[in-house]
Amino acid sequence: NQGLPWTWYTLQKLDLSGNEIQTLDPAVFHCLPNLQVLNLESNKLSNVSQEAVTAWISLTTISLAGNIWDCGAGICPLVAWLRNFRGSKDTTMICSSPKHLQGEKIMEVTRNHGICEENDYFMTETPSPMPELISDATAEPTFAPTSGSPATPPTSTFG
C-alpha cells in the first residue's frame, strides 16, 4: 500500500480544509477504513477520480465547497457518487471552469447541460478483491475494497 505506511482503523474524522490539495490519492482512503467525516473545503481540487470516490466506503459526511471545480466530464465520477450518497453533504459546490459555466452550481449544471450521461457513471460496479496489475512502472497500484458495502466499524477498546 503506497497511500500511508499504516492503517488507521480508529480515525473517524479528517479535516484537510485549506491545504491547497490538488489531487486525492485513493490509496490514502484505503488506509482509513472507518473514516466517517471528511472535510476537503477550500483546497484546489478540480475533480475527484472514480478510484477515490469508490474508496469512500464509510463516509457519513463530506464537505467539498470552495475548490476550483472543472465542470467538464472529469467531474462526473464525483457527481455520480454525490447523487447516490445518503449522508450529509454540501450542495454549494461551484464551477470554476469552463468559463461559460463559472459560478454555476455543479449539481445543477451537470443535470441541466447533460455533462454527465447517467449511463456512464453508475456506482453499482463490484470492486475487484485484487489490485490491478499495471504495466507502467511509474504508475501507482490501485487497490479496491473487498466488499461492495460499507462494513460496520468494529467496537474499539482503545483510547
UniProtKB/TrEMBL annotation:
<dbReference type="Pfam" id="PF13855">
    <property type="entry name" value="LRR_8"/>
</dbReference>
<keyword id="KW-0677">Repeat</keyword>
<protein>
    <submittedName>
        <fullName>LRRT4</fullName>
    </submittedName>
</protein>
<dbReference type="InterPro" id="IPR003591">
    <property type="entry name" value="Leu-rich_rpt_typical-subtyp"/>
</dbReference>
<dbReference type="GO" id="GO:0005886">
    <property type="term" value="C:plasma membrane"/>
</dbReference>
<feature type="compositionally biased region" description="Low complexity">
    <location>
        <begin position="141"/>
        <end position="159"/>
    </location>
</feature>
<dbReference type="InterPro" id="IPR050541">
    <property type="entry name" value="LRR_TM_domain-containing"/>
</dbReference>
<dbReference type="InterPro" id="IPR032675">
    <property type="entry name" value="LRR_dom_sf"/>
</dbReference>
<dbReference type="InterPro" id="IPR001611">
    <property type="entry name" value="Leu-rich_rpt"/>
</dbReference>
<keyword id="KW-0433">Leucine-rich repeat</keyword>
<feature type="region of interest" description="Disordered">
    <location>
        <begin position="140"/>
        <end position="159"/>
    </location>
</feature>
